[in-house]
Design a protein that fits this description.
By secondary structure, the protein is an alpha/beta fold. The chain is built from twelve helices and five strands. The chain folds into two domains: 177 residues, 3-Layer(aba) Sandwich (Rossmann fold); 79 residues, DNA polymerase, domain 1 (Orthogonal Bundle), CATH 1.10.150.240. It is globular and about 60 Å long. It has a five-stranded parallel β-sheet, with helices on both faces.
Length: 269
């Protein structure tokens, strides 16, 4: 049928961990543990969506971080430095990821509604496999379990912004066309991943990394503050090429209805 039959979902900031705090805070902690080096939470958020080794590499190239690193060590960050920070990151992330495994408000009901329409639920993540082995069962115990998942280090060709994790979902789920898939993510590399895979790409402007607030902080914000943060996040996601940007996954069914209308008219991503 010429309609959406699979959605490929990111994890942190998309389906679990409102605000995407599990990975960002751990980057701050890993830099501190490995090199007694401080980075800010805001800096840690900038490359979000990449694989974690690549995320650390990108952090080292941020002008402000590079300047502090050069002042401290007299040289740019190198691969051995990244390995050391990654080695610190992994046990910290494995230990903490279950604390951020609760499904975001509306996710469980939305997944049920999508499945009632015959839509398969795939997923992929910038997390390594060892982290996903902890996160997946923890989320399942709280009501969210996709039909398939793949981690950023499961495929030899790499992770985002390449298309490979999204395409692995297509293969594993037996989807007939990439044009019948929707990739949903809260980060720019995740949006690009979907585009590179030939899919419809949908950004989430409130629940994820770009908005950058906890659920409790979000609930206490003024309408003006929410609008400012939402606008910033939406602009970044649209700039990455998102076909649609909504607030949270609970808004996805209406988007899929519109995509189905467009597919019926012969449109493609």
């Amino acid at each position: 049928m010429n309609r959406i039959n699979a959605v490929i979902l990111d994890w942190a900031g998309t389906t679990v961990d409102f605000g995407s705090f599990a990975p960002t805070q751990i980057f701050v902690d890993a830099f501190r543990q490995a090199f007694d080096m401080e980075i800010t939470l805001e800096e840690a958020r900038v490359p979000m969506g990449l694989g974690k080794w690549q995320h650390i590499e990108a952090l080292g190239k941020l002008p402000a971080v590079n300047a502090r690193w050069q002042a401290r060590f007299g040289r740019a960050m190198n691969a051995a430095d990244i390995d050391a920070i990654y080695a610190a990151f992994m046990p910290l992330q494995i230990a903490k990821v279950v604390d951020f495994s609760a499904p975001i408000v509306g996710v469980v009901d939305t997944i049920a509604a999508l499945r009632a329409e015959g839509i398969k639920i795939g997923s992929c993540s910038g997390y390594p496999h060892l982290v996903m082995e902890k996160l997946v069962p923890a989320a399942a115990g709280q009501g969210y379990a996709p039909d398939y998942w793949v981690a950023t280090d499961d495929l030899a060709v790499g992770g985002r912004p390449g298309p490979w994790m999204a395409l692995q979902n297509v293969i594993a789920l037996g989807i007939d066309s990439v044009a019948h898939c929707v990739k949903v993510d809260d980060s720019a590399p995740g949006i690009t991943e979907g585009l590179n895979a030939g899919m419809w790409s949908v950004g989430l402007a409130v629940s994820g990394n770009e908005f950058g607030a906890t659920w409790e902080e979000y609930q206490q914000m003024s309408a003006e503050d929410i609008a400012i943060r939402r606008k910033h996040a939406a602009e970044k996601l649209y700039a990455a090429g998102a076909h649609y940007v909504v607030e949270m996954l609970a808004d996805l069914p209406d988007v899929i209805a519109d995509i189905n209308r467009r597919l019926a008219q012969g449109e493609r991503p």
